Structure formats: C-alpha cells, structure tokens
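Is this the right way to post structure tokens for a design question? Let me know if I should format differently. Anyway, here goes:
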C-alpha cells in the first residue's frame, strides 16, 4: 500500500537533511526516504554539523531530531531566524519522543512545519512529506514569531463574528440567571 502511495509523487528532485543523533534512527529515516525515491539525503549527528550541511547543501526539507542529547530546537530556531540561513522558509519536520503538549507547543512556536512522534512508521513519514508538498502554509512574521501559519483549521468567514460571540455569551448569562431564579422558587 505504501508503495502505491509513494508512486503518486516524484520526490527524485528533492533533497533532505536528516539531523538525528542516533545512528540507528538516522539509518532508518534514510532507508524510508530512499523508498520514496528522495533525490539527495544528507545526514548530521549534531546540530552544529546539521547547520553546516544546511547552509552548504540547502536541502528542500529538514528532519530535525529533538532529544535530551540533541537540541533540534536550536537548529530550527537558527534556520528560521539566523541572518545567514539560506532559506528560512524551508519545511522543518520535528521528529521526537518528547510528545508532551509543552514540547509540541514549543516546536510550533519556534516555527516547525510538521511534527512526528517517535516511534514512527514509514507511512507517517510519507504523510508528512505529502502534507509539505500538497499544502504549503503561508509564513507569518511578528515580533516574536517567524514560521508557518500555526492555524491549521480553516474556519468559514463569518461577518461580525465577535459581535455574535458576545451575543451568545449574553444569552448564556441570561440562561444561567433564569436557572438560578428557578432554583430559588423550588419547593423546600
């Protein structure tokens, strides 16, 4: 099934940087990426070497590990904010076993494009690559953030949305007050 999915895309012109400190995980990612016919795969075992390769090779996608012994977030931050970054818009897919909400939010707030929790499957790697290819997100620059738009849901535009929200809150308060009054009249 995965081979059928992979045939839908031609990744042969894409280069990928895998920044991962565990040799086994690097080899696993490389092997999976090869099955998708990725053109060039560069590997780094430290954030410093990953940055060097990133600047020299200018990959189309970066897979960045985040672990206690590998600060992939410093690499992500540098890719997004360093003036020497050759492409601050490159998709960065964070791969980590640190899946608590605060870690996901930290990675999101530093500008990750996609998030993959370890352990992962080849299908998940493919789906993240396909998401990057099919649905590129606009980049946002504010005083404290630069990265892909963090809003994933596409809500329909509703004119006067805030006014409607305030009206709904007012209705809730009226309902609560009515319920309290009804409770006051209840037989003892």
């Amino acid at each position: 099934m995965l081979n059928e999915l992979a045939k839908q895309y031609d990744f042969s012109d894409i280069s990928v940087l895998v920044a991962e400190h565990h040799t086994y995980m690097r080899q696993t990612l490389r092997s999976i990426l090869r099955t998708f016919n990725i053109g060039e795969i560069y590997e780094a075992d430290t954030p410093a070497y990953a940055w060097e390769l990133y600047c020299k090779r200018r990959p189309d996608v970066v897979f960045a590990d985040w672990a206690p012994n590998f600060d992939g977030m410093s690499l992500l931050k540098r890719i997004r904010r360093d003036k020497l970054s050759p492409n601050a818009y490159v998709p960065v897919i964070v791969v980590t076993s640190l899946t608590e909400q605060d870690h996901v939010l930290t990675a999101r707030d530093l500008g990750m494009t996609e998030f993959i929790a370890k352990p992962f499957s080849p299908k998940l790697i493919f789906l993240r690559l396909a998401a990057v290819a099919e649905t590129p997100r606009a980049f946002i620059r504010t005083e404290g953030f630069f990265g892909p738009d963090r809003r994933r849901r596409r809500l329909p535009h509703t004119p006067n949305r805030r006014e409607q929200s305030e009206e709904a809150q007012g209705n809730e308060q009226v309902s609560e007050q009515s319920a309290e009054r009804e409770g006051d009249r209840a037989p003892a």
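Format looks fine. Someone answered above. Worth noting: The CA atoms of residues 67 and 96 lie 6 Å apart. The first helix runs from residue 2 to 6.
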